[in-house]
């Protein structure tokens, strides 16, 4: 595969390329065949070990943080990633990332993330024997922004063992190493697929991930017609309608339809304050065909009508 799909967006103080002999003390898995880079940021250090295999780009990121940190990263192109969280509540998930900027919060301490960016063509070849992965492709065209995960499963021994075996391969036998990585990747996908079919999920992690997917989907689609059909949205995000609302209430303090209204109202307010669009234009922009209906919804939400909002420009009629 070609080089990395993911770029860390960090306030870097120092970046060093390291040899195998000079890896830091907090490195748990020294990968013989990987390129290693130590990144120093204000909150601590990140060791990035990476390698490109013909069917997957592999990244092992080890964080050694003296303070809590928010890590931003950019995904350059549509990518299918098998993500292992190796510390804390160990879990893994196969996720479809669309191009964009993402953020993850880390607490003080050590964290380990192992990522396999899997070749789309190779994975498509595997689908006949792994039909449970098909929703990742069926729904991707509708979820144009953000990410879609099939679900976080606990990293049991049968899943984590082949992943760790990839990290300890001997670089002195390149052909054997390539075939071993391929074999272990196939084992990981088959074991993960089996856990999906058995619905063996890490529930807390799944809900956290699904909340992120819901938020990104609403941000990208709040003005579209599709957002008004909860059953369709639930299907696209691989949830039931009741779970869609349950997760929305827990994560955002409101059911799904109110989350949509929140985004529509706040984006409408922003346009009223900063643009010269008419109220009718703003109504259409945020998903309402009827300007009067938008005005009533706006007043119900903010307690003030759109016509009472001070405009930066003079043009703000209902026409």
Description:
This protein has 319 residues and is an alpha+beta fold. The chain folds into two domains: 6-213, no CATH class; 222-319, Arc Repressor Mutant, subunit A, CATH 1.10.10.60. It is 38% helix and 25% strand. The chain has ten helices and twelve strands. It has helices spanning 120-126, 135-138, 157-167, 174-197, 203-221, 230-236, 241-252, 256-274, 279-285, 291-302, and strands spanning 6-9, 14-18, 35-41, 44-53, 56-65, 69-75, 79-85, 91-97, 100-106, 109-118, 147-149, 153-154. Strands 2, 3, 4, 5, 7, 8, 10, 11 and 12 form a nine-stranded antiparallel beta sheet that branches. Helix 8 crosses helix 10. It is globular and about 70 Å long. The N and C termini lie far apart (54 Å). Keywords: DNA-binding, Transcription, Transcription regulation. Residues 212-312 form the HTH araC/xylS-type domain.
Number of domains as seen in the coordinates? 2
What count of helical segments does DSSP give? 10
User: Looking at the structure, what is the overall shape?
Assistant: globular
Sheet-strand content, in percent, reads 15-25%
Look at the helices and sheets and give the structural class: alpha+beta
Radius of gyration: 23 Å
Mean pLDDT: 84
**How many beta-strand segments?**
12
CA(first)-CA(last) distance: 54 Å
Measured as a percent range, the helix fraction is: 25-40%
Q: Unreliable segments (pLDDT under 50, ≥5 consecutive)?
A: 315-319
């Amino acid at each position: 595969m070609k080089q990395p799909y993911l770029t860390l967006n960090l306030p870097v103080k120092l970046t060093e390329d390291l040899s195998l002999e000079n890896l830091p003390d907090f490195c748990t898995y020294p990968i013989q065949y990987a390129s290693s880079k130590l990144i120093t940021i204000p909150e601590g250090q990140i060791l990035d070990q990476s390698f490109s295999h013909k069917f997957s780009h592999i990244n092992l990121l080890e964080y050694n943080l003296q303070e809590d940190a928010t890590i931003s990263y950019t995904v350059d192109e549509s990518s299918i990633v098998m993500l292992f969280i190796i510390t804390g509540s160990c879990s893994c998930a196969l996720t479809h990332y669309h191009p964009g900027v993402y953020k993850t919060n880390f607490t003080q301490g050590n964290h380990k993330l192992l990522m396999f960016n899997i070749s789309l063509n190779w994975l498509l070849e595997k689908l006949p024997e792994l039909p449970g992965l098909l929703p990742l492709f069926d729904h991707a065209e509708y979820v144009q922004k953000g990410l879609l995960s099939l679900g976080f499963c606990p990293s049991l021994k049968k899943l984590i063992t082949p992943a760790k075996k990839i990290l300890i391969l001997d670089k002195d036998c390149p052909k054997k190493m390539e075939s071993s990585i391929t074999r272990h990747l196939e084992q990981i996908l088959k074991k993960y697929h089996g856990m999906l079919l058995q619905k063996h999920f890490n529930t807390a992690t799944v809900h956290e991930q699904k909340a992120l997917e819901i938020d990104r989907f609403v941000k990208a689609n709040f003005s579209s017609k599709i957002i008004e059909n909860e059953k369709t949205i639930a299907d696209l995000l691989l949830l039931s309608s009741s779970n869609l609302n349950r997760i929305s209430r827990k994560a955002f303090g409101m059911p799904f339809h109110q989350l949509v209204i929140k985004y529509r109202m706040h984006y409408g307010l922003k346009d009223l304050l900063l643009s010269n669009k008419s109220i009718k234009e703003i109504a259409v922009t945020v998903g309402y065909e009827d300007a009067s209906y938008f005005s009533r919804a706006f007043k119900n939400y903010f307690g003030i009508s759109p016509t009472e909002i001070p405009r930066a420009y003079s043009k703000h009629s209902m026409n």
